[in-house]
Write a structure and sequence with these properties.
single chain; about 550 residues; alpha/beta; six-stranded mixed sheet; five-stranded parallel sheet; 20 helices; 11 strands; globular; binds 6-O-phosphono-beta-D-fructofuranose; G6P_Isomerase; Glucose-6-phosphate isomerase; monosaccharide binding; carbohydrate derivative binding; gluconeogenesis
């Protein structure tokens, strides 16, 4: 076990970093670039189809060296080793965190590949039109019913990859997602679908999440009504439901037949689970070969993270840059801005990955921390965000770190040739906007003309730091590398901060209180004793409902 180390803020290296930040605070990115033509070369890294440029961060060589020393002082090498040796790194749940193990080759991880094999058999039956509904129809629509990690990862990746060609000779079903607890998505999706040709994936690591179980129950009733069968009918369950979970017992209790159960394990955290059978919607989109490519890309990033010195290590450097921004430059928010619309759901995925992992204020030893941890993360497709919140990035009062993502190659054989030239032009336009925005944020009005004399309301002060990530292309392989990069970045930050990124106790108590509140809503008289706001709101709703 890696020895615990507290007292981060009283360490020498921490004070040196604080001093460095104080010394550098008057530096402007425009001056840093003007003074050093090689800045990009020194502050950018490339690996596995990804280029990470952090030269537009407010960082100097001296600051960078100190951050690397901080990583050493926090025993980063031992922690990475502990993660990849399957040690218990999630102490509050007494578990290892072996999501990386899902990307290991078959000879190293036979158990994992056994489940992948079962998933492949199901995926291929669906894609070949051999999986039949209870009345003999081929499946045209698959609905993933899940929430959190059982929704955000598969949704993001399936959406990102859906413009690639369907696997040759196979018919890709339409894949839908239903997560929202209030039934708004499931009711909408069901309105459009035919029960005879619809298959549901009930995805839940715990198989206790009420959001998912209620959506699954609604789907089950809908199927039973539409097919004229009992909701407990064995063939209805066999032909229309696949379960994906770490709890075979609970899947069986709910009604998933054993042949339709895909398993993963306690040592895979929900938000790290898209590499397991939870990723089935991705496999239905790109085929099993594509899914295995995504695993291979992630595995490549695992190897990179384990082997490269910190200065050459993309996830480590991205983590250290974030620590610099958050803890030394006092930048408490990061905007994720993909300039490729296929990455539309990446911000929501990262919101969970980063904020559920590192939104912690207690150290691994159980003591309150006296420094900031995870910033607020939000985002939007970049060009759309330009017309929404970029005003604040350019002229607001907050310092905000931005993360730009763009793809080098895009439209190829996957579009009709008549529109190829136009679409290539649109891709170039989007990339030009990405470069323009990161340049303007960094340099301010000096990006256009240093001699401009502008009225105050037209000025751009710049010096807003950003990182740009360029993907060679948005293939399953490169997407796999990108996502594994983020996972490791989150882990490295947690090591620096001395917190556990693999639990999520902060989401538990709300679930308990919600059970009480359901009672209050059914019987508003039982609200007496609650705080006046909750009591009045429950009463107000009851009045409006005529109760
Ligand atoms: O409530 C938070 C959470 O536990 C997430 O960590 C998880 O991804 C999500 O709920 C869904 O959990 P499950 O896959 O067990 O339904």
């Amino acid at each position: 076990m890696v020895p615990e180390q507290d007292f981060l803020t009283i360490s020498t290296i921490w004070s040196q970093l604080a001093q460095r930040a104080e010394q550098d605070k008057s530096l402007h990115l425009a001056d840093l670039f003007a003074a050093d033509k090689t800045r990009f070369d020194r502050f950018s890294l490339e690996c596995s189809g990804l280029l990470a440029d952090f030269s537009k961060q407010r960082l100097t060589d001296e600051g960078c060296d100190l951050l690397v020393k901080l990583a050493d002082e926090r025993n980063l090498a031992s922690w990475i080793n502990a993660l990849f040796s399957g040690e218990v790194v999630n102490s509050t749940e007494d578990r290892s965190a072996k999501h990386w193990f899902l990307r290991e080759p078959a000879d190293k991880a036979p158990l994992v590949h056994e489940q992948l094999g079962s998933m492949a058999a199901m995926v291929n039956r669906i894609l070949h039109g051999h999986w039949r509904g209870v009345l003999g129809d081929a499946i045209t629509d698959v609905v993933n019913v899940g929430v959190g990690g059982s929704d955000l990862g598969p949704l993001m990746a399936a959406f990102a990859l859906q413009s690639s060609l369907p696997p040759e000779g196979l018919t890709r079903p339409r894949v839908h997602f239903a997560s929202s607890m209030d039934g708004s998505q499931v009711s909408q999706v069901l309105q459009e679908l035919n029960p005879r040709t619809t298959l549901f994936l009930v995805s839940s690591k715990s198989f206790t999440t009420v959001d998912t179980l209620h959506n699954a129950n609604t789907a089950r009733r809908w199927l039973a009504r539409g097919l004229g069968l009992s909701p407990d009918d064995d063939s209805l369950l066999r032909c229309h439901f696949i379960g994906i979970s770490a709890s075979p017992e609970r899947m069986t209790d709910w009604g998933i037949v054993s042949e339709n159960q895909l398993l993963f394990w306690d040592w895979v955290g929900g938000r790290y689970s898209l590499w397991s059978a939870i990723g089935m919607p991705i496999a239905l989109t790109v085929g099993m070969e594509g899914f295995r490519e995504m695993l291979a890309g992630a595995h490549e990033m695992d190897q990179h993270c384990r082997s490269q010195p910190w200065e050459q290590n993309i996830p480590v450097m991205l983590a250290l840059v974030d620590v610099w921004n958050i803890n030394f430059l006092d930048i408490r928010a990061r905007a994720v801005l993909p300039y490729d619309g296929r990455l539309k759901h990446l911000p929501a995925y990262l919101e969970q990955l980063e904020m559920e992992s590192n939104g912690k204020s207690v150290s691994r030893a159980g003591d309150p921390v006296d420094y900031d941890t995870c910033p607020v993360i939000w985002g939007e497709v970049g060009p759309n965000a330009q017309h929404a919140f970029f005003q604040l990035l350019h002229q607001g009062t907050q310092a905000i770190a931005c993360e730009f993502l763009m793809t080098a190659r895009r439209y190829t054989e996957d579009v009709h040739s008549e529109s190829l030239a136009e679409l290539e032009g649109q891709h170039a336009l989007s990339n030009a906007n990405c470069l323009a925005q990161s340049r303007l944020l960094a340099l301010g009005e000096r990006a256009l003309d240093p001699s401009l004399a502008l009225p105050s309301y037209k000025r751009y002060h710049g010096n807003q730091p950003s990182t740009t990530l360029v993907l060679d292309e948005l293939s399953p392989r490169v997407l796999g590398s990108l996502l594994a990069m983020y996972e490791h970045k989150v882990f490295v930050q947690a090591v620096i901060w001395g917190i556990n990124p693999f639990d999520q106790w902060g989401v538990e108590m709300g679930k308990v209180i919600a059970t009480d509140m359901l009672e209050v809503l059914t019987d508003p008289d039982s609200a007496a004793g609650l705080d006046s706001s909750s009591m009045a709101l429950a009463q107000h709703i009851a009045n409006k409902q005529g109760k």
